[in-house]
Design brief:
13 helices; binds tryptophanyl-5'AMP; 5 strands; mainly alpha; about 5% strand; single chain
């Protein structure tokens, strides 16, 4: 709870170009939940440097991501949209929580295993303790709910374990966060290999819809999506390509998968792919236009960055001071 309301925290990395997976699995739900909670949406640039980044590109992408949050429908007057690196409490709490997290727990994280296999020349300590920084993000804001895609569930479970461990020693310091995962859309798969997650880092450009893709590109990629030879639109694990397209269409149109199957009864894959492509393109286009406008409006965005950075700092520091006191750091002299 914060400010007498239930609180919500989530974040995204500004590395690579965001995909439809990020949008449908996370951002879209953020917008739906925004009115119900005291919301904090962070551009988690500190997480990004666990993989080597070009500084100018990271700065540019971070600003693009922040404006994307707004363009997708989050009102920056009501929701605290800010850069993680502007709030030093994230790093300070992460240090403390590192001392309450076991090597064995971090060793089990599948994302660490995947990322260290991918970046074998740079398996740094930050990559290893990444989930502790993520736990700090969440716990700093006494977060009740964390809307994420399924791939972040293991990290969220760890955040809960750390919070519970800390609370068991020091009393009720942290709110116990709950994940919010959409019924469909929490796991959008690659268009070229539906057994794999749609990911920004996929080498095959046709595998992912990027949020920056033009309508023509979106439609072309859906036309090329890998399906099967059943020639029947069914919502079944045996047809993972079609199932993924149904999931995408279902979230975009707010219809249930069953309703989608009914809508396309007797229709061919070509028609269905075209409908999915057109629907996704029609959602992305206004977001892209709004984002382009916002990026031109430098003073407005700067004002939001400043005001929301200060707001995030205020709430985060409150929790941090409480934690510092609990672990035995000396009081500050005013
Ligand atoms: P990131 O930047 O990889 O992804 C951002 C969000 O998008 C979701 N997502 C997907 N959902 C469905 N299908 C997909 N194919 C797909 N790909 C990505 C992710 O689940 C995520 O919700 N560590 C986090 C960022 C983070 C964070 C946090 C999140 C840092 N601190 C605190 C929540 C709370 C990450 O790298 O997400």
């Amino acid at each position: 709870m914060l400010n007498g309301r239930k609180s919500l925290f989530s974040g995204m990395q500004a590395t690579g170009t965001l995909t439809l997976g990020n949008y449908l699995g996370a951002l879209n739900n953020w917008v739906t939940l925004a009115d119900e909670y005291e919301c904090f949406y962070s551009v988690v640039d500190m997480h990004s440097i666990t993989v080597r980044q070009d500084p100018a590109t990271l700065r540019k992408r971070s600003r693009e991501l922040l404006t994307l949050y707004i363009a997708a429908g989050l009102d920056p007057e009501k929701n605290c949209i800010y850069y993680q690196s502007h709030v030093s409490a994230h790093a300070e709490l992460a240090w403390i929580l590192n001392c309450f997290t076991y090597m064995g727990e971090l060793n089990r994280m599948t994302q660490f295993k995947d990322k260290s296999a991918k970046h074998a020349d740079n398996i740094n300590a930050g990559l290893f303790t990444y989930p502790v920084l993520m736990a700090s993000d969440i716990l700093l804001f006494q977060t009740d709910v964390v809307p994420v895609g399924i791939d972040q569930m293991q990290h969220l479970e760890l955040a809960r374990n750390i919070a519970e461990r800390f609370n068991n020693i020091y009393g009720e310091v942290f709110t116990m966060p709950q994940a919010y995962v959409g019924k469909v859309g929490a796991k959008i798969q690659s268009l070229q290999d539906p057994s794999k997650k749609m990911s920004k880092s996929d080498e095959n450009e046709n595998a992912s819809i990027y949020l920056t893709d033009s309508p023509d590109t979106v439609i072309r990629k859906f036309k090329r999506a890998v399906t099967d030879s059943e020639a029947c639109i069914r919502y079944s694990d045996e047809q993972p390509g079609i199932k993924n397209l149904i999931n995408i269409y279902s979230v975009c149109t707010k219809k249930t998968p069953e309703e989608v199957v009914k809508e396309f009864e007797g229709k061919g894959y070509g028609d269905f792919k075209m409908a999915v492509g057109e629907t996704v393109a029609s959602i992305l286009k206004p977001i892209q236009e709004k984002q382009a406008d916002l990026l031109k409006n430098k003073d407005y965005i700067d004002g939001i960055i400043k005001a929301n950075g200060e707001k995030a700092n205020y709430f985060a520091t409150k929790t941090l001071r409480k934690v510092q006191r609990k672990v035995g750091f000396p009081d500050r002299i005013r």
